[in-house]
From TrEMBL, chain A:
<dbReference type="InterPro" id="IPR058548">
    <property type="entry name" value="MlaB-like_STAS"/>
</dbReference>
<dbReference type="InterPro" id="IPR036513">
    <property type="entry name" value="STAS_dom_sf"/>
</dbReference>
<dbReference type="Pfam" id="PF13466">
    <property type="entry name" value="STAS_2"/>
</dbReference>
<feature type="domain" description="MlaB-like STAS">
    <location>
        <begin position="11"/>
        <end position="87"/>
    </location>
</feature>
<protein>
    <submittedName>
        <fullName>STAS domain-containing protein</fullName>
    </submittedName>
</protein>
From TrEMBL, chain B:
<protein>
    <recommendedName>
        <fullName>Chemotaxis protein CheA</fullName>
        <ecNumber>2.7.13.3</ecNumber>
    </recommendedName>
</protein>
<feature type="domain" description="Histidine kinase">
    <location>
        <begin position="406"/>
        <end position="608"/>
    </location>
</feature>
<dbReference type="InterPro" id="IPR003594">
    <property type="entry name" value="HATPase_dom"/>
</dbReference>
<dbReference type="InterPro" id="IPR037006">
    <property type="entry name" value="CheA-like_homodim_sf"/>
</dbReference>
<feature type="domain" description="HPt">
    <location>
        <begin position="1"/>
        <end position="103"/>
    </location>
</feature>
<keyword id="KW-0808">Transferase</keyword>
<dbReference type="InterPro" id="IPR036641">
    <property type="entry name" value="HPT_dom_sf"/>
</dbReference>
<dbReference type="InterPro" id="IPR002545">
    <property type="entry name" value="CheW-lke_dom"/>
</dbReference>
<keyword id="KW-0418">Kinase</keyword>
């Protein structure tokens, strides 16, 4: 689901990010490594801890590579789940997505 | 991993849990009061329930739940596990197994039976006053209509019509702490394991349910999270420190983690107890409050396709709703149970770790193992061929090639042994199934029976295990139905009214020996003899030894039971047993003492893949005779051979006569009788205990041969059990000794031999 947009790549997350999706998401992220990444989480309806782990590991790796890793758009369920499981993604939110 | 795979794993685990459950219950039945045993039993039911919940198997969940509730009473010492209680529990374990099988393979279960048991279990659980605390836990079960509403039962706790006396329970010890005066804060350390996710549980959903209990703050520990390229997306890295202020207390929190308890590290403490202690440093963690409305997540959850969140949800919701209705009494009681529970779960966690460390196993497709075994068989044959051709071509004697070949031979032998060991499995599962058979028959016949098993860990090839269950079931039925007397009669005879059936397995000289002994009446030889005469099996004036009379029961169409019962006595039992044991290359014998019981002894090969055999020549053909059948070999002398009737001959061995069987003639290898003096006689043990001398032309030697099925590759040939490939690449047939002996008795090998010969 990666589409090239100028230099930076973007990734739209699937609506349901459950156990079955974690491996796929991991593979997608691995394929996008090395450049700036913008994630669109606006379609997410459900997200599980495993996918949250993958996303956070991604954020960590991008940080190590000194590349930007941002969430351009986030859905409400996505935000709430992240809050619920105590994962703070405020610093990863793109400017316009912050309330 | 898709859902079906997970489901398959769940059912495999169910089987293990059911075995664990049954052995635990049997231990309790034997008077074991170790809390760890009770825990193991509880854990087994709990895991099944948890998994079943995730897959939406409502019947299973509701039954497991009632069962679990009752077990919890035992666990918290509210219910004494007496024999009567355990009888109900063992039956429940059987029903649980049935329900699991029905969920996997379809089919139906005996509804009436499970309903009765649910009632009995509930009666047990509610047999005492503090059972009020169990009432909320029973609530989720109302989804299934058969779980008779537990609430009314609480009103009249003394359920005497089931025959269980209530045990008075004192509240005195717990009076000083009314639970509702403060709202306690729980500090929770939640570290999921990989299994939690693999089983379809979702940490986020657990946390959501937790947040419903009250005000919650959370800290997610991501320290162990590796960078993206080093992570396994299905591994659990996150762990959480949570604090919840809730009036549901620790129990409410535990309810949330109910299904996940065994797949995560969970530490729950109530702050009030901790404040004095070391809680202060925990407070410094940067907790994130979770004070928002989560309803949006519910919608997300319910639009999802899989049903697991819904199940967990309804369970939790029901528990919450129910908890509100519980009286103060219940709260006090549950607080009392808390301490016991915490200790128990700590102990069980320790045990779980121990179990994980004990031995690592992998599940492998049987096909793969069989393919490997087949290949190793080929390797052995190939190695034999290679060494034979080297020996034939090598005139120098000891060359380095020979040395290498010997090493190769040892290696292949070792590989073969290890590969065979892969297929070897303990007989335990079969023995456990027998326990159930005994219970059911004892119930139907109204006898009281105790099954003692020994040597359950004796290992034998999986094929043998699979084929052992049926004959064993037959024999156990016979032992209980015909062997044991009614309790009153036993008492009159001065025996323990409870009959004993002993099932043992052991290794003996490369075979497995299974013994089934009962302490019943033994075989009534007079009756057997009369019956045999009535059925024209023997002549009225036949002079038979005790052993021969005993062996009559293996004849087809023989039954001593006066009337045909549902269980056994149709006269098809023992001859079927004998045939299936023989089909496995085994032997069965019987010894019986009047008034003291009978012992059936079965001796079976450890594997059906290799066989130690005597390689012999008959009419220019090479045959293999299974070594286990041969008692001795001898060179007949002219003086020992006697003619008998038109074509029969006898050989006199140590002053007793034994029929001489010409193998070549029986198998139609030649049309004329061979001269006994030119050949060798193999004395073999045959059906019915008698001995026969098989006549062959020459003995080539003893060898371990790899069995190749004739049925699979060609077709069944009467008188031949299987085939093998010799070192020179030729096929040799393995003799079916019993068939040949039977043929020598006049009933020639079935007519299809001619078809087989031409076909």
């Amino acid at each position: 689901m990666a589409s090239k947009k100028a230099a930076q790549k973007s990734l739209s997350l699937a609506p349901v990010l459950d156990l079955n999706e974690a491996t796929a998401l991991h593979a997608q992220l691995m394929g996008l490594k090395g450049g700036p990444l913008v994630i669109d989480a606006s379609a997410v309806e459900r997200v599980g801890a495993l996918c949250a782990q993958v996303l956070m590991a991604g954020a960590k790796s991008w940080e190590e590579d000194k590349q930007p890793f941002t969430f351009a758009k986030v859905s409400e369920p996505f935000m709430k789940t992240m809050q619920l499981i105590g994962v703070n993604i405020d610093h990863l939110l793109a400017q316009e997505a912050r309330q | 991993m898709d859902m079906n795979e997970i489901k398959e794993i769940f059912f495999q685990e169910c089987e293990e849990q059911l075995a664990e459950l049954e052995s635990g219950l049997l231990k309790l039945n034997d008077g074991d009061r170790d809390p760890e045993t009770v825990n193991a039993v509880f854990r087994a039911v709990h895991s099944i329930k948890g998994g079943a919940g995730a897959f939406g198997l409502d019947d299973l969940v509701s039954f497991a739940h009632v069962f679990e509730t009752t077990l919890d009473c035992v666990r918290s010492n509210k219910l004494e596990p007496t024999q009567d209680v355990l009888k109900v529990m063992l039956k429940s374990a059987d029903v649980l197994a049935d329900l699991t099988n029905a969920a996997r393979d379809g089919g139906s279960v005996d509804e009436a039976r499970s309903r009765t048991l649910i009632r009995e279990l509930e009666a047990l659980a509610n047999g005492e006053v503090p059972a009020a605390a169990e009432a909320p836990a029973s609530k989720p079960a109302v989804a299934a209509p058969k779980a008779a509403a537990p609430a009314p039962v609480v009103e009249k706790p003394a359920v005497n019509d089931e025959g269980f006396q209530p045990i008075p329970f004192s509240f005195g010890d717990f009076d000083e702490e009314p639970a509702d005066r403060y709202v306690p804060t729980c500090q929770i350390l939640f570290r999921p394991k990989k299994d939690l996710y693999a089983k379809g549980n979702e940490a986020a959903l657990l946390l959501r349910d937790l947040s419903r209990l009250g005000e919650m703050s959370i800290y997610c520990d991501m320290d162990s999270l590796p960078p993206l390229d080093k992570m396994n997306p299905e591994e659990a890295y996150f762990s959480w420190k949570i604090s919840v202020t809730t009036d549901k207390g620790e129990d409410g929190v535990r309810t949330v983690f109910e299904f996940a308890e065994w797949d995560c590290d969970l530490d729950i403490r109530t702050i009030e107890e901790e404040v004095v202690g070391e809680a202060a440093n925990e407070e410094e963690l940067p907790m994130q409050p979770v004070p928002f409305d989560l309803s949006i997540l519910d919608e997300g959850g319910s639009t999802g396709s899989d049903e697991e969140p819904a199940v967990i949800e309804s369970d939790a919701a029901a528990a919450v709703a129910a908890a509100e209705t519980v009286s103060k009494v219940a709260q006090v009681a549950s607080r009392a149970a808390e301490n016991a529970k915490a200790a128990a779960s700590a102990a069980s966690a320790a045990q779980a770790n121990q179990a994980a460390a004990a031995g690592q196993t992998i599940r492998v497709d049987l096909d793969r193992v069989d393919r490997l075994i087949n290949l190793v068989g080929e390797l052995v044959i190939n190695q034999a061929m290679l060494s034979q051709s080297v020996v034939e071509n090598d005139t120098n004697g000891t060359s380095s090639i020979n040395m290498g070949l010997e090493e190769l031979q040892q290696l292949t032998r070792e590989i073969q042994d290890s590969v065979m060991a892969i297929r070897a499995q303990p007989v335990k599962p079969v023995f456990q199934r027998m326990a159930r058979t005994v219970r059911e028959i004892a119930d139907i016949t109204g006898k009281s029976v105790r099954l003692i098993t020994e040597g359950e860990n004796t290992e034998v090839d999986k094929t043998v295990i699979d084929k052992l269950a049926e004959p064993l079931t037959h024999m156990i039925r016979n032992a209980v139905d015909h062997g044991l007397e009614m309790p009153e009669k036993r008492e009159a005879l001065g025996k323990n009214p409870e009959g004993t059936v002993r099932l043992t397995a052991k290794h003996r000289s490369g075979r497995i020996v299974i013994e089934l002994a009962d302490d019943g009446a033994g075989i009534n030889r007079e009756k057997v003899r009369q019956k045999a005469i009535d059925n024209d099996l023997i002549a009225a004036d036949a002079n038979l030894s005790d052993e021969e009379i005993d062996n009559l029961i293996f004849h087809a169409g023989f039954s001593t039971a006066d009337k045909v019962s549902d269980l056994s006595g149709r006269g098809v039992g023992m001859d079927v047993v004998k045939r299936s044991i023989q089909a496995l290359g085994g032997r069965i014998s019987i010894s019986s003492k009047p008034g003291q019981g009978s012992v059936f002894t079965m001796s079976l090969p450890l594997t059906l893949a290799v066989l130690d055999g005597m390689v012999v020549t008959v009419a220019g053909q090479t045959l293999v005779v299974p070594l286990t059948a041969i008692v001795e070999t001898l060179q007949p002398e002219a003086s020992a051979i006697h003619s008998f009737g038109a074509s029969q001959r006898l050989i006199s061995i140590r002053n007793s006569f034994c029929p001489l069987v010409d193998v070549g003639r029986i198998l139609n290898f030649r049309n004329t009788q061979a001269n006994p003096m030119d050949g060798v006689a193999l004395l073999v043990e045959s059906e019915g205990g008698g001995q026969r001398a098989l006549m062959v032309d020459a003995i080539q030697g003893q060898r371990q041969v790899v069995i190749k099925s004739l049925e699979a590759n060609y077709t069944h040939v009467p008188g031949i059990a299987a085939a093998t490939i010799l070192g020179d690449g030729r096929v040799a047939l393995i003799l079916d000794v019993d068939a040949v002996v039977a043929a020598s008795r006049g009933q020639s090998l079935r007519q299809d031999i001619s078809l087989a010969a031409t076909g």
